[in-house]
Amino acid sequence: MTGVKLKINSQWIAENLHIAPEYQVSIVKSIVIVLALIIIRSIVLKVADRRLKDEQAFYRFQKTTQYIFWLFLTILVGRIWFQGIESLATFFGLVSAGIAIALKDPIVNLAGWIFIFWEKPFGVGERIEIGGVKGDVIDITAFQFSILEIGGEDRPEVNTGRIVSIPNNKVFIEKLANYERSFPFIWDQLCTQVTFESDWQRAKEIFERLGEKYSKKYSQQEINNFKQASKHLFFSFKDFSPMVHTTVKDCGIEIALRFIVEPRLKRSTRTKIWEEILKEFAKDSKIDFAYPTRRIYNNLTEGTVKNSA
To answer: Does residue 126 or residue 25 have the better pLDDT?
Structure first.
């Protein structure tokens, strides 16, 4: 009796929806496969959520199950709709040829995802800069990755609150900077100018002392790890100590402090150093900040003519 009802329903669908009976069976099988895979993935994620306490580990596991889900869905549903093609390689060859022509950009984005997955130029949670956009990577998908944007030089290391989605193909055409790979620090520099009449040597001593105080200190083991990494990447740092340089400028003597700092602590470290510089300069009457000024020079009263007279 049930078989008769199904046959009647199948005929009704064929007559009214113009779907042949063989296609009806394929549609039902495809729906069953999709639902089964969704249920299996949901169960696996629930179990993983209880066992994996680390958020980043759960994120990576969730992404991996998503890719596996789509892989099995493509294979199982594809075999249903392409029963006449016994060779799976032939099936993928025909599909990929059509997709490559119609969907050029998504294919390049998918290739970019494979490059990111295989070469690992960056990962979730790392701070990068690509195409003039800097921020922390918060998501990587098959076609794009998202970063939580941070401000530029006018607002250093401050989150703007914007999430920027970037196509994966940008890794092939844009320069990419990773702030946390191999060497977990960056070189930062603070500059100011003091007047020519100031005690610039005293100002330089203040900068040197603050550089030693706030510059990131690394253990010998960490330095050895850096040197080991430089063998593979062909670069090296011989001196991790802060450095202070002096230069003569139009308005005065420039003093520049160059020091190493962790990328995420750049703004707070700058704030601490500048606050101490302001306090030290305020206490010393022999040091004045230089700024653009206009001076009238009278050679008769100030120059060598007066002295010779």
So the answer is: 126
- What are the structural domains of the chain? 2-102 (no CATH), 121-178 (2.30.30.60), 186-283 (3.30.70.100)
- 273, 189 Cβ separation under 8 angstroms: no
Among 25-29, 94-98, 101-105, 210-214, the range of highest mean pLDDT: 210-214
Q: What is the pLDDT of residues 132-181, one digit of tens each?
A: 888 889 888 888 899 998 876 555 567 778 889 999 989 998 888 888 77
Quickly tell me which residue has 């969730």 as its tokens: 62
Residue closest to 141 by CA, chosen among 70, 55, 53, 228: 70
pTM for the model: 0.54
Q: Which two structure tokens, joined as six digits, stand for 16?
A: 């009214």
Phi, psi of 217 (to 5 degrees): -100, 135
E runs forming strands in the chain: 127-130, 133-140, 144-150, 159-167, 176-178, 186-194, 243-248, 253-261
pLDDT tens, residue by residue, 58-79? 776 777 777 777 777 777 777 7
Range 224-244 burial, b when 16+ CB lie within 10 A, else e: eebeeeeeeeeeeeeebebeb
Query: What is the SS3 assignment for 109?
Result: helix
Roughly how many angstroms between the first and final C-alpha of the chain, as a whole number?
130
Relative to beta strand 144-150, strand 243-248 is: unpaired
The rounded distance, in Å, linking the Cα atoms of 96 and 90 is 10
